[in-house]
Amino acid sequence: MKKIITETKSLPEIYGDYCFDKTTLRQRVPKSVFKEFLEVQNGRKELTLSIAEVVANAMKDWAIEKGATHYTHWFQPLNGLTAEKHDSFVSPIGDGQIIMEFSGKELIKGESDASSFPSGGLRSTFEARGYTAWDTTSPAFLKDDNTGITLYIPTAFVAYTGEALDKKVPLLRSMNAIEKQALRILRILGNNTSKHITTCLGAEQEYFLVEKNLFNKRLDLAHTGRTLFGAKPAKSQELRSHYYGTIEERVAAFMRELDFELWRLGIPSKTKHNEVAPNQFELAPIYSTTNVATDQNQLVMDTINKMASRHDLVALLHEKPFADVNGSGKHNNWSLATDDGINLFEPGKNPKENAQFLIFIAAVIKAVDKYAPLLRLSTASASNDNRLGGHEAPPAIISIFLGDELETIFKKTDEKLKTRNKLEIGVDSLPKLPMDITDRNRTSPFAFTGNKFEFRMPGSSQSTSTPNVMLNTIMADVLKEFADELEGMEDKTKGIQKLVSKTYKEHKRIIFSGNGYGEEWVKEAEKRGLPNLKSTTDALGAYTTPETIELFGRHGVLSEGELISRYNIYAENYYTQIVTESTVMIKMAVQDIYPASNRYALELAEIIKKSSKILGEEFTVTQEELLAYILKNNAELYKSSKKLEEKLEELNNLENITLRVNFTKDELLPLMKKLRTHGDNLEGVVEHKMWPFPTYEELLFKL
Ligand code: ADP
Ligand code: MG
Is ligand 1 within 6 A of the CB of residue 69? Predict the structure, then answer.
């Protein structure tokens, strides 16, 4: 059943209607409970059962008033999706009577059979129990779908032993780690008033839309989210006409409904526009704390899918649905903010603020340079491998764009120290930085954009958790080093000055303002000694190096076992995704392309035979060439399919996960490429009407 909105309510009435936010809680519980709950949220107090009892009751009443019948603990297992198990509020009291119940205990903790979620070896088979635990920092919300209205409670998901089986736990731990170290720096700088520091995230979401009935005709799209065959369209990517162009009416209707649903959930959807590629779009909500923004992004992806379907469209969140067309990313806008409203990446208005700004930026420079492989790793997947380094996408090399003004300032700190000139950060006033630094570099994977960093490598379909876990943890580590060094110093001003300058000097190789998409950069980066981890297979190993294990252990973000489990899960994801793609390719090649091409070849052979009788050979020689081209490509297509089939069998016999990953990259990917080439060659010449599935022309230029 399609539900088209007929809302006549105003936006302020709708906004957050389905979100159990702080305002709602305040209205529904005694003041003392509300105050204590805030302390729990801020990590200053342990959650007690009596507080949970009152909050649970308020939540239940609110949800039931809005028509809810069920509740669910909602969590983010390591498969990158979200999971839920619904229970109704109904509790029988005899005599056929019921009451609606939801206790504090049910709010705080749920037991879940963890065996159907990946644990990467963390959970032994005899202990399949997992627990979901209420995350008090992310608001509960309602979802209204065909099964009714359900109260969703954001939760963490942990094993019986307490190890993290999800994406939320490490994120929360990394936020604590960075807060702890950043507060030390603030104290060194003389700030004794800020009590809390939180990381912020604004996640820009890119996606494609395609016609549902066309999507259903393509096995590759339906099973893998991307096209595994597809010849280049006659009309190439029209940069200017689509980007920021007028939004087509049908898409506009979809977007309108999407916004409405998101606003109702309390997600501040802000911008929507056409992206560079045809049928590609972007949505960006206003940023919030990383934890909430990560939950919200999961809901954004989910809602995009649902709303598209209502409009007989399918949203493709895959990083590279179409070869040679722009891919989709998820720009990760990251910053640090104090509870009293200071953005730590904000250039200062006075010398003291400038010292703060420079030290935090210096920490980013060092962290990104020192731990570039971990940042690369945090975006690594089989699907993002297709995007990175391709059309209009960041390369796999990590570098930072600072902008001319800021780079000049750092250069100066370096020069002044060299010439023994005094540049006293905190005394000298630095040139004022314009708030809106306009010479942005769109080709940089990691760009400073005025008061935040925009990490552009994350893929459109991935959870925002892992990139932020990495960012927070590596930053915490460098801030710790800085604080350890500065805390013991007598003259802190001088210490900061030296530290900023030394850090810049030692790590400036990571700063690059040129064209990140160019070939020259690849060479230049190599000269600078920057890693270029092109494939997930090159990046994955970084999970389990002694340095990584120590780093994550030092800050209590992930234990060795948890890191190994992540390696296992992501390695398995990598090859299973490519195995699925191979299997689908073989099916399409053998059952669709091969017979269709043969039919066409047969028709062609007939006509050549007949016409050569009438016209003579000189007129048929080019047609014979065409026939030969088709027959040859089709034979090669078939041969490659069979070979790929054999390789899949071989892979199956490999025991070790690392062997499988490498085999996939070295043996499967080249064969898939070959198979595609023959398929696409055939698509270019076989009669259009005979082609067994919709082409790029239809998928990309019709809506
Ligand atoms: P772009 O030009 O890259 O599209 P926008 O101005 O649209 O950039 O902002 C992109 C995202 O960055 C939005 O989600 C926005 O809310 C977010 N953002 C803005 N300021 C911050 C900040 N201080 N920290 C984190 N994210 C921020
Ligand atoms: Mg952006």
Answer: no
